[in-house]
Amino acid sequence: MTLTPEVTAALDTAALILILIGALLCLTAAIGLVRFRDVTARLHAATKPQVLGLLLICVAIALSLRSWPVVAFLLPVVLMQLATAPLSAHMIGRQAYRNGTIDDSSLIVDDLAASKRTPPAAGG
C-alpha cells in the first residue's frame, strides 16, 4: 500500500511530536529523581513519566518506520517496561519502608505497621 505525500508528512509530524513529548517526559523523570527529597516522590518520578515517555517514543518509532517487524520488536520492549517498572518501584518502596527512610508522618494509611512490630525473619 502506497501512502500519499500528505499522509506521509502527517505521520512524520506525529512521530516528531510524540518523540519530543516522550523525550520531555523522560527528562522530567530524570530531573525528578535528582530534585525530589523523599523516596516516594522519587519512585513516582522514576516510574510514571519515564514509562509514558518510553511508550510515546516507541509509538513514534513505529509510526516513523512503518514496518511490522519494527512493531514486533518494540512490543516486547514496551511490555517488559510496563511489567518491570511497577515491580521494581514496589520493591524499592518496601525496602525503604523497612529501612525507615520513609517519613511515617507523610503516610495517610500504613498497611505495613504490623510488619514493623515483627522482625522479617520471625515469620510473622
UniProtKB/TrEMBL annotation:
Coiled-coil annotated spans: none
Keyword annotations from UniProtKB, A to Z: Membrane, Transmembrane, Transmembrane helix
InterPro entries documented for this protein: PhaG_MnhG_YufB
Record field: transmembrane: 14-34, 46-65
Superkingdom of the source species: Bacteria
PANTHER family to which the protein is assigned, alphabetical: ANTIPORTER SUBUNIT MNHG2-RELATED
Family stated for the protein in its record: Belongs to the CPA3 antiporters (TC 2.A.63) subunit G family.
The protein, known as: Cation:proton antiporter
Organism: Microbacterium awajiense
